[in-house]
Write a structure and sequence with these properties.
With 443 residues, this protein is α/β, with parallel strands linked by helices. 36% of the residues lie in helices and 20% in strands. The structure holds glyoxylic acid and manganese (II) ion (2 copies). One manganese (II) ion is lined by residues 108, 119-120, 153, 219, 375.
Length: 443
């Protein structure tokens, strides 16, 4: 015989509420599955290199144009109002942008060289899937809602990461941006013109920023803190300060087979010493230093190089450590005759505390995650209340064809984003959210 016996305690109110929340979350994920799969399938072949399996979706190239066409189609097919802003970022609006205090979500569609499928696109595809879920549930009244695709987030073509959001927020100078060149000497202005976009209007876009009440970027996790936990989704807490530097080591070209070792002015040993110093200092100081890109002139096996240009990517938990780390590496490079140019920098970002507390609560205690990776959300955080959701990555691998997230976790991400947007959209539009004042704390 079964049934409750006197004295059996059923689930308590908290447990019952958690069960109901989980069921609601699973329902949203199940309903979103078809939309998500179709969009993912459509986008998957775009810009994929058959030999490496990695993506080469660099800003203002034909692969990028295909991504942008995909975005525009997804927007128009949903009856959303589509526009590309003066900095080339794409927007899809539900509701009237002029009403202001909009809830904005999205990410980027460009990639690093041979990048993975998830870094960026997961946030854009999830954003459209969340819009569909919100509409199905009639949860779109209140504030305008937009999906955004920021251009050149990776800085893979023109060297400056988060260029679209930096230009929009006024962090990047438009004239300097127009003059940035790719590895073939094509300027950003030329590349935009060739792709049919006017580069003359680049720059700070206060009118657009004023429309944004809150920005939430969903992104694949780029580490493995969620692996092995019961949480498919975490809430971003902070982004380490980071930056990029170009190091030019000059030398004198000469014959590899006839120039005595003592007569050489070879820039390569100085570069090599700098790489080793960077690795040693970063390990010792708890930071990260990477030389992942190198240009050698004239690049001949049997010729001493006349110039080695290397790009340093450096990150650390706080600004002082980053400064010390870079200064130490620069000293070694300068002793080898190198000239050093800072190409971009991002200070420590601490995401809006009330907002991330709110997101964690909506998501039933999603864990906070700091990251060393840069994001458009980090740039927007200086201008509007901003938050991030991270979707579990089982291996933590990113910026690689091996980057992965399980479909069930991606759908849990769509569900989490939908619940977060539902909550934000229900806010009273007459009470815009406030940016958290005071110095960043980190977590
Ligand atoms: C962007 O992904 C970066 O952190 O470089
Ligand atoms: Mn990336
Ligand atoms: Mn990214």
């Amino acid at each position: 015989m079964t049934g409750a016996r006197p004295g059996d305690a059923g689930p308590g109110p908290a447990e019952a509420a958690a069960q109901a929340a989980k069921q609601a979350a699973d329902e949203v994920a199940a309903e979103a599955a078809d939309d998500f799969r179709r969009m993912w399938r459509d986008l998957l072949p775009v810009g994929r290199n058959a030999a490496t399996g990695g993506y080469r979706r660099h800003a203002w190239t034909p692969a990028d144009a295909d991504c942008r066409a995909w975005f525009e189609r997804e927007a128009r097919d949903r009856g959303l109002w589509y526009e590309a802003d003066r900095n080339g970022n794409q927007w899809a609006w539900l509701g009237d942008p002029a009403d202001g205090n909009a809830v904005v979500t999205g990410s980027h569609l460009d990639s690093v060289p041979d990048g993975g499928a998830y870094d960026g696109p997961l946030g854009v595809v999830s954003a459209f899937a969340a819009v569909d879920a919100l509409r199905r549930r009639g949860a779109v009244a209140g504030r305008p809602l937009a999906v955004v695709n920021f251009t050149e987030e990776e800085g893979a073509r023109f060297g400056v990461a988060c260029l679209g959001s930096r230009l929009m927020t006024g962090v990047a100078d438009p004239a300097a941006a127009r003059a940035l060149t790719d590895s073939g000497g094509v300027t950003l202005a030329e590349a935009m013109e060739r792709a049919g976009h006017d580069p003359s209007a680049l720059g700070r876009d206060d009118e657009r920023l004023a429309r944004v009440g809150v920005f939430v970027e969903l992104h694949v996790e780029q580490g493995r803190r969620l692996a092995g936990t019961p949480h498919p989704v975490g809430v971003g807490s902070a982004i380490w300060p980071h930056g990029r530097w170009r190091l030019d080591f000059p030398g004198v070209a000469d014959h590899a087979g006839t120039t005595l070792m003592e007569d050489r002015r070879d820039p390569m040993p100085g570069y090599a010493a700098t790489v080793l110093a960077a690795r040693e200092s970063a390990t010792r100081m708890g930071g990260l230093a990477t030389f992942g890109r190198l240009r050698v002139a004239p690049n001949g096996t049997n010729a001493i190089a006349s110039l080695v240009t290397a790009w340093l990517d450096c990150r650390a938990p706080d600004a002082d450590t980053l400064e010390d780390l870079v200064a130490g590496i620069a000293a070694v490079a300068e002793a080898a005759g190198a000239e050093i140019t800072a190409e971009s920098g991002t200070p420590l970002v601490t995401f809006d505390r009330p907002l991330r507390v709110r997101l964690a609560r909506i998501l039933g205690g999603a864990p906070p995650l700091p990251t060393g990776a840069g994001h458009d959300a980090g740039v927007l955080a200086s201008a509007v209340p901003t938050a991030m959701l991270f979707v579990r990555n089982p291996t933590g691998v990113s910026h690689s064809p091996h980057e992965h997230a399980e479909e069930a976790d991606c759908l849990a991400g769509v569900s989490a984003l939908t619940r977060v947007l539902t909550d934000l959209l229900a806010d009273d539009p007459s009470e815009p959210a406030q940016c958290e004042p005071g110095p960043p704390g980190g977590s």
